[in-house]
């Protein structure tokens, strides 16, 4: 684990409390996933997008997808056994997670939501949001899957 002298976030506190080996990366605001990956010194495939998906009124899940892949609506609907899912607006996402868009992560989320992780997270070191703009957590994908009891499935194209 790192000793980070900068201000903490709920995500950093949560990964530390879980005892997960991690590194905190801090950089300025970025305009794209590619820019964020470059600022963290990693490939886009190693930067994980955390999406909040509404399954039904009041029911949400986190979906974790590598940065070089596209979230598959059809695959997630099939996995969840539903014909309809949607993305909540920014206010609803913040209400559910405590994070604004661009900073969302399952670590330290206001609500402990089910997590669906793409198979590409398995066996790899990844960078996931650290709960604030320009903050990333480098962790083992397997540790994230284990910590949240994530369902692992092919959910991207």
Automatic annotation (TrEMBL):
Gene3D superfamilies: YbaK/aminoacyl-tRNA synthetase-associated domain (3.90.960.10)
Residues in YbaK/aminoacyl-tRNA synthetase-associated domain copies: 28-146
InterPro entries: YbaK/aa-tRNA-synt-asso_dom_sf, YbaK/aa-tRNA-synth-assoc-dom
Protein's recorded name: YbaK/EbsC family protein
């Amino acid at each position: 684990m790192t000793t980070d002298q900068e201000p903490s976030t709920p995500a950093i506190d949560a990964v530390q409390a879980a005892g997960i080996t991690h590194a905190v990366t801090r950089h300025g605001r970025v305009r794209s996933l590619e820019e964020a990956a470059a600022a963290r010194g990693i490939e886009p495939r190693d930067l994980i997008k955390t999406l909040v998906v509404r399954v039904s009124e009041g029911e949400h899940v986190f979906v974790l997808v590598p940065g070089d892949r596209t979230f598959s609506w059809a695959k997630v609907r099939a996995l969840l056994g539903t014909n309809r899912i949607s993305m909540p607006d920014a206010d609803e996402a913040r209400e559910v997670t405590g994070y604004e868009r661009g900073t969302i992560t399952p670590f330290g989320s206001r609500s402990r939501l089910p997590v669906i992780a793409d198979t590409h997270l398995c066996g790899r070191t990844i960078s996931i949001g650290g709960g604030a703009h320009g903050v990333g957590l480098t962790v083992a994908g397997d540790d994230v899957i284990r910590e949240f009891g994530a369902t692992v499935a092919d959910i991207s194209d």
